[in-house]
Amino acid sequence: MFRDLTIRRDFAVTTIAAWLLVSATLSPTARAQQTEDPNSVAAARTLAVEGVKLAQNGKCDEAIDKLERAEQLRHSAIVLEQLGECYIEKGRLVEGAEAMRSVIREGQPDNPSEALKKANANAHTLLDAAKDKIAMLTITVEVVGKAQPTVEIDGQVMPPALIGAARPTDPGEHTIEASAVGHLPARRRVALSPGQSDSVALTLVVDPNAAAKAKPVPTVANADQPEAPAPRETPAPASSLAKAESTGPNHLPAYIAWGVGGAGLAVGIAYGWVAMNQKSDLDEVCPQHRCPPTQSERLDAAKANGVISTVAFGVGIGAAITGGLLFFLADGGESEPQPSAARLQLGPGGAGVELKF
After folding, report:
1. Are residues 85 and 162 in the same domain?
2. pLDDT confidence bin for 329, thresholds 50/70/90
3. How far lies 220's CA from each of 214, 216, 223, 228, 304, in Å?
4. Which residue spans within the chain are E strands per DSSP?
5. In this predicted structure, what is the pLDDT of residue 217?
C-alpha cells in the first residue's frame, strides 16, 4: 500500500540498525525500565535482524511475527518503525499509525544514529499518509430488557465503553456480532472505504426458548425438622355443599387457548425478526436475488425461520379466536341452591360422603 514510501536499506545497514537497538535507540527512561538480561538482548537482536531482512524483501507476513517478538523482548524505535511499516502495508492502518506515533513521541537522543534519524523521519511520512485513510465506525446496540450486550468485531471483543462511540477501524470488510444473556444474537457485515465514517445499529430480541432452557432449582428438605402431621378430615357442612353447585361459567379452557395464542404470536414475532435480519444480510451478497452456492446454508436457514414464523402466527391467531369462542360459549348463570344434606359413611371398604338433594 505504501511501498513507495518504504526506506530501502541494504543488508549491511539493516544489520547495523538492528544491533543499535540495544544501545543508541533507547532513551534513558527506557533503559532504566528494562531488565539487562543478556539472553533476552541477544534473542531480540537476532529476531530484529531477521525481521528487518524479511520486511525489506517484501515478506511482511513473516516479518511481523519476528519484529513483534523482538519489540517485546527489547524496545527499539528502529524495530517499532519497521513493524509499523509492515502493519500499514498489510492494511492494519490503526496499529501501524499508533506504532508511528509511539516512535515520534519517543523522540531522539542527543546524538542519534543515522538509522534512528531515518526511522523517525519515515514515521512522520507514513503517519501523515495513513491517518487520513483510517475509517470510523460507530456501533449501537438496542436490547429488549436490561441485559448487558457484548459486541465482537471480527471475533475480537470490543470494550463496552466503545458501544455508541466512533471507533477507528481499518478499511475493508468486518463482521459485527452482538449478544446478551437470554437474547437472540444479531450479526451484521460492513465494508468500509478508506477514510469513511459509518454506523451500524443492532437490536437484540428476547429468546423465546430462554425460559424453557432454565433448569428448576431443586429444594432440599430439612432433615432435622419433624414432619408436620396430616390435617384431620372433618365432615363438610351441608351449607357449603349447597353452595358448591351454585358455580359460575367455566372460562378455564378459554384462558388456556389465549395462553397458547400469546405464545404462538411471540414465537412468530421472534422468528420473523430473525428471518428479516437474515434476509437483509443475504441481500448484501445475493445481487438480483441470486445467491451463490456458498450461501445455500444461510438461505435455507432464513427460509426455515420464515416458515416457523408463519406457522407460529397461524397457531397464535387460531388459538386466540378459539379462546374467544370458548369464553362466550361457556355456560353461565347460577342455579338456586336446593336443600341438601350430607352424611359421612364409614365401612370395611373405606369412607364416603352421601349427598341427598
Report:
1. no
2. confident
3. 19, 13, 9, 16, 43
4. 135-143, 150-153, 156-157, 166-169, 172-179, 186-192, 197-204, 341-347, 350-356
5. 56
- Mean pLDDT over the full length of the chain: 78
Q: Are residues 105 and 44 in the same domain?
A: yes
Question: Grid cell 445455500 — which residue?
Answer: 296
Kindly list the distances between the CA atom of residue 43 and the CA atoms of 10, 22, 70, in Å, as whole numbers in the listed order. Answer: 22, 11, 7
- Domain range holding 312? 252-329
Nearest C-alpha neighbor of 63 from the set 84, 77, 93, 34: 84
Give the CA-trace dihedral at 70, 72, 74, 80, to 10 degrees. 70
Q: Does residue 133 register a pLDDT over 60? A: yes
- What cell numbers appear for 174 in the block? 468486518
Whether the per-residue pLDDT at 295 is higher than 80: the answer is no
Domain count of the fold of the chain: 3
Q: Is residue 256 part of a domain?
A: yes
94 and 192 in a single domain? The answer is no
Percent of the chain scoring above 70 in pLDDT: 71
